[in-house]
Design goal:
The protein is globular, with a radius of gyration of 19 Å. It has helices at residues 22-27, 36-52, 82-90, 175-184, 215-231, 243-256; strands at 12-15, 18-21, 72-76, 95-100, 123-125, 134-137, 158-164, 186-195. It has 268 residues and is of the alpha/beta class. It has a six-stranded mixed beta sheet with strand order 5-6-4-3-7-8. Mean pLDDT is 87; it is low at 111-130. Strand 7 (158-164), helix 4 (175-184) and strand 8 (186-195) form a beta-alpha-beta unit. The two termini are 35 Å apart. It is built from six helices and eight strands, in the order E-E-H-H-E-H-E-E-E-E-H-E-H-H. Bound molecules: S-adenosylmethionine.
C-alpha cells in the first residue's frame, strides 16, 4: 500500500466566500473551489472545449466498439459531471464510472459523511443526476491496485477512459504511472483520451484564435486556481499572502486581462 492519502468524506472549508473540499486543502491537492461559481466556470470551459473540438465528446474512432451494447466508460475527475452528461446525451447506453476526490453538493458539509471513516461502501449510484453513473471516491495519485474496497476498479474493464483537466490534481511525478494505470484498466482495443490545458493564457501569436471568447473564463480561472494557494490556510496557519495583498494582486491581473493586445487563449 502506498502512503497516498484518500478522501473519506465530503467535508468543506469556507474561505473568502468560496468553498473548498477539506481533503484538498489539507493535502494540498486540487485547491480549487467546489462551489456553484466554479461549477459555472467549468460549464463554460466545457462549452469552449465543445466549440474547439467541434462537438466531439468522444475523440476515439469506432466508438462504441462494434458489438458492444453497453460500453463501459471511466471518467477520471468528474467535477460536476459536464463531460458525462455530454457523453450520455450522444451515447445513452454507456455505463459510466466516475472517479473523484469530492462528490458533495458544493459547499455544504454532509453531516453523515463524518461517520463514514470505516465504511467500505464508497461507491454509490447517483440517482438524482439527470443521467445515472457510478461514483467512486478515490485519489488518482494512488494506483487502483492499492484499493482494498469492494468497489475497486479492476483491470481490463473499460472500453473508454477519459481524463480531462487533471493538471491541478495529479502530482508531477505521478503522470507516467497514472497513464500506465489507466492503460491497465482498458479492455484490449479500448481507448484512453486525455485533454489538458497549457496554463499560459496569453500570446502575441496572431494565430491565437479564441481571443476574447475566453476572457471571462480566464478571469474566473485565475482566481479559482490562485486564491487558496496564495492566501488560504487552515487556522492557526497563515496564508502566504494577506487577503489585502492577494486582492491587490488579483485586481492587477484582472485589469491587465482587459488589455485587448494580450490575445488571450487556451492551448489544448
Ligand atoms: C477541473 S475539474 C474537471 C472536471 C471534468 N473532468 C471536466 O473536464 O469537465 C477537475 C476534477 O478532478 C478532480 N480531481 C482533481 N485531482 C484529483 C485526484 N488526484 N483524484 C481524483 N480526482 C481528482 C477534482 O475534484 C475536480 O472535480
Amino acid at each position: 500500500m502506498s502512503a497516498v492519502p484518500q478522501p473519506r468524506d465530503n467535508r468543506t472549508v469556507r474561505f473568502l466566500d468560496r468553498d473548498f473540499a477539506r481533503f484538498s486543502v489539507q493535502n494540498n491537492l486540487y485547491c480549487v473551489p467546489i462551489d456553484v461559481d466554479d461549477e459555472y466556470r467549468q460549464k463554460e470551459l466545457n462549452r469552449i472545449f465543445r466549440d474547439v473540438l467541434q462537438d466531439r465528446v468522444v475523440l476515439a474512432p469506432n466508438f462504441p466498439p462494434p458489438g458492444v451494447e453497453e460500453p463501459q466508460v471511466l471518467e477520471c475527475g468528474v467535477g460536476k459531471g459536464a463531460w458525462i452528461e455530454d457523453l450520455l446525451e450522444g451515447y445513452e447506453h454507456c455505463e459510466v464510472t466516475g472517479v473523484d476526490i469530492y462528490f458533495g453538493q458544493g459547499g455544504e458539509d454532509d453531516e453523515d459523511d463524518e461517520d463514514d471513516e470505516d465504511d467500505e461502501g464508497d461507491e454509490e449510484r447517483d440517482e438524482e443526476a439527470v443521467q445515472e453513473f457510478t461514483k467512486k471516491i478515490w485519489n488518482l495519485n494512488a494506483p487502483f491496485r492499492d484499493d482494498r474496497s469492494s468497489s475497486r476498479i479492476g483491470r481490463e474493464r473499460f472500453d473508454l477512459v477519459n481524463s480531462r483537466l487533471l493538471m491541478d490534481g495529479i502530482n508531477t511525478d505521478r503522470w507516467p504511472s497514472y497513464v500506465n494505470d489507466l492503460y491497465q484498466v482498458l479492455k484490449p482495443g479500448g481507448w484512453l483520451q486525455m485533454v489538458e490545458l497549457e496554463l499560459k493564457f496569453q500570446s502575441d501569436n496572431v494565430s491565437a484564435s479564441l481571443g476574447q471568447d475566453v476572457r471571462s473564463n480566464v478571469q474566473s480561472h485565475i482566481e479559482a486556481v490562485s486564491l487558496w494557494p496564495f492566501a488560504g490556510a487552515l487556522p492557526p496557519a497563515q496564508g502566504r499572502m494577506t487577503v489585502a495583498q492577494y486582492q491587490a494582486l488579483l485586481l492587477g491581473a484582472q485589469t491587465q486581462l482587459q488589455d485587448d493586445s494580450l490575445r488571450l487563449y487556451y492551448d489544448l
